[in-house]
Amino acid sequence: MRPVGVDLFAGAGGMSLGFEQAGFDVVAAVEIDPIHCAVHKFNFPNCAIVPRSVVKLTAKEIRKVCGVSGRIECVFGGPPCQGFSLIGHRALEDPRNSLVLDFVRLVAELEARTFVFENVKGLTVGRHRAFLEELVQAFDAAGYAVRIPWRICDAASFRVPQRRERLILLGSKKGTPLPEYPDPITSPADEGRLDLPRGPTCHDALRDLPDADEYVALWEGDVVRSLKWGAPSAYARELRALSNDTWHFGYVRDWDPSLLTSSWRTDHTPISRRRFVETAPGTVEPISRFFKLPANGVSNTLRAGTDGSRGAFTSPRPIHYKYPRCVTVREMARLHGFPDWFRFHATKWHGARQIGNAVAPPLARAVAFQIARALGIAPIRPRKIISLGDPNLLYMETAEAARHFHVPPPATRRDRKSGARKRSQSETEAARLLALSELRG
């Protein structure tokens, strides 16, 4: 039997994928954004989706949705929090941090043997440390011990070509062995620089991918069939799933490796392209403020931008080290450690947001292996092959996704300065039909 995990604040599923690859069955994913729910359901069709907030959600409801009455080995997730320690007030009593207490509550209600709490590095410094101290106390009161000192883990130290530092808090039910932190696979040579290799480089990650600019079809959609794949590095071979070992202890997906997906093109002006060419690798282009990837180094931190309720601002995608354009969503996914079979929402704004919000799967996998080790669980490689979900899930507008999951659509507003043009329903439908025609060959 494979150990069971539950993903809270699941997003598109970076943590879900890492835990699956470490030998866990992720049986439930709780996520309030219906667009993220749709993408998670496509990539993990056997995982139950709970499309709602954790507020007032109960363990009984989660168990009912996923059909699991037995033991849950781990609950993991990264609740959004402000983390401000106000004078005369406890940080966890701030209403803005109520979701963190709901995380603690659900870990206890589900009687999980272990938990993984993931969040921003900033919670460990200055007055924010008071927040973490209160969080440790809250877990203690709920019957859970926390591994102290907590640790900041950089994805670049776990074979990801991106500097991405995240707080990882590990804990277990009192009386259960506490998990250890994973040891970095490669140690950063210089903490302050992006141009030094730390395992795979941007060139290793991207060199075999076809250039999206060569395909007219990618003006109108995000997928095209291609024979122009280059020779992959060892890192790229894993993400292309070119051998059985590259699936780790996850389920093999039935997918078509000839498809270049998540690659909708961006229309740059000739002036912008000239500025991109003139920008030195590893530096920031002064007008757009886009970072240009160093071929022999690693990416800067890929960020999500804001959601629709705060103006739908997309954080800038970096400039490709070879081509005078921003990287595609698929290229972002390569820099984040997502395999090529893993799909994101078709639009660039949603797809980039889903990657920027996600934990890098190789880091999540390393943490999950440590959870399994502490619990004395040997990972098992499954024999079952899984078919991916309905491709229509990847092309749903927010309202359509909300109807699909029987939830009210989230309130949104748009910022005219965001540069994120909303595609019409007809454009989205055209992209959907184009993608389906490619999938059918």
Features:
single chain; 441 residues; alpha/beta; 12 strands; globular
Describe the structure.
The chain has 441 residues and is of the alpha/beta class. Helix content is 28%, strand content 12%. It contains 13 helices and 12 strands. Strands 1, 2, 3, 4, 5, 6, 7 and 8 form an 8-stranded mixed beta sheet that branches. The longest helix is centred in the last third of the chain and has 15 residues, at 425-439.
Q: In percent, how much strand structure appears in the residues?
A: 5-15%
The geometry reads as globular
**How many strand segments?**
12
Distance between the termini: 37 Å
Order of helices and strands: EHEHEHEHEHEEEHEHEEHHHHEHH
Q: Count every helix, treating DSSP H or I runs of 4 or more residues as helices.
A: 13
Give the radius of gyration. 21 Å
Helix fraction, binned, reads 25-40%
What is the residue-mean pLDDT, rounded to a whole number?
A: 89
Q: By helix and strand content, what is the structural category?
A: alpha/beta
Which stretches are low in confidence, meaning pLDDT under 50 for 5 or more residues running?
Answer: 186-197, 413-421
| Main sheet characteristics | 8 strands, mixed
Would you kindly provide a brief summary of this structure?
The chain is an alpha/beta fold. It contains 13 helices and twelve strands.
Per-chain topology:
Layout: E1 4-8, H1 14-21, E2 25-30, H2 34-43, E3 48-50, H3 59-66, E4 74-77, H4 98-109, E5 114-120, H5 129-141, E6 144-146, E7 151-154, E8 165-173, H6 202-206, E9 224-225, H7 234-239, E10 252-254, E11 259-260, H8 270-278, H9 329-336, H10 348-357, H11 361-374, E12 385-387, H12 398-404, H13 425-439
Parallel strand pairs: 1-2, 1-4, 2-3, 4-5, 10-12
Antiparallel strand pairs: 5-8, 6-8, 7-8, 9-11
Helix pairs in contact: 1-11, 2-12, 9-10
